[in-house]
Design a protein that fits this description.
With 60 residues, the chain is mainly α. The chain has two helices and no strands. It has one domain.
Length: 60
């Protein structure tokens, strides 16, 4: 039982370690692009929510 748990934890640790090794810090250009896309997405979702709210208040 304990050996099976130890193997499972070791296997999961090695998976996480492999992913960690592949990670890299984004460049400033990548960071700015990701930030712009995220901000635009948040604004679009907010605008849709606002439009639905106004429509619901107008209808009811």
């Amino acid at each position: 039982m304990a050996g099976k748990l130890t193997r499972a934890l070791s296997s999961q640790y090695h998976k996480y370690l492999r992913v960690w090794r592949l990670l890299k810090k984004p460049s400033m250009a990548e960071f700015k692009t990701i930030s712009k896309v995220s901000a635009i997405g948040i604004l679009i979702i907010g605008a849709v929510g606002f439009a639905i709210s106004v429509a619901m208040k107008t209808v009811f």
